[in-house]
Amino acid sequence: MAKGKKQQGGTGTPATVAASKAGIEFELHPYEVDPDAESYGEAAAEALGIAPDRIFKTLLAEVDGRLTVGVVPVSSTLDLKALASAAGGKKAQMADPHDAERATGYVVGGISPLGQRKRLPTVIDASVSALATVYVSAGRRGLQIELAPADLVRLTGARLAAIARR
Q: What is the pTM of this model?
């Protein structure tokens, strides 16, 4: 992976800018977006020829009324009860998509855990630790950023917990 490899033709997304400013190594992976795809993450995995357990999706939930980010493999679903527990809360429900977009500055299907408009509590599924590199949205549909799990955790200030249901 190249250190701070920037997106071609522009200043990048807030996610790529955050990764570049942090001086971490990352690689960008653009792909053609399938507008009819039921799952943006699974479509990305297929388009890039990557196992779905290596691409992680960024989901927002309300834990006791507070927006919280859950990052899990696209091959699984977010366990809301586990997320609530990991975030120190009692109850979690998926956030309204409009609230998620407003808080992060990204559109649904392109929400990155990096470079969000507002720093939110973040929990990443512990399975990320078994990977050499992980893919997450780079801040827009059709662009994934590949980076080391430790860098993802550090840049998001996340805690690791078993929050994915397979």
A: 0.92
Residue 87 in contact with residue 121, Cβ under 8 Å? yes
Give the number of other Cβ atoms within 10 Å of residue 14's Cβ. Answer: 19
8 A C-beta contact, residue 143 and residue 30: yes
C-alpha–C-alpha distance, residues 59 and 48, integer Å: 21
Residue type, 83: L
Lowest pLDDT segment from 12-21, 35-44, 64-73, 152-161: 35-44
Residue 8 to residue 150: CA distance in whole angstroms: 25
Query: What confidence tens digit (pLDDT) does each residue in 45-77 have?
Result: 999 999 999 999 999 999 999 999 999 999 999
The token duo for 28 is 């960008």
Tell me how far apart the alpha carbons of residues 18 and 129 are, in angstroms, rounded to a whole number: 21
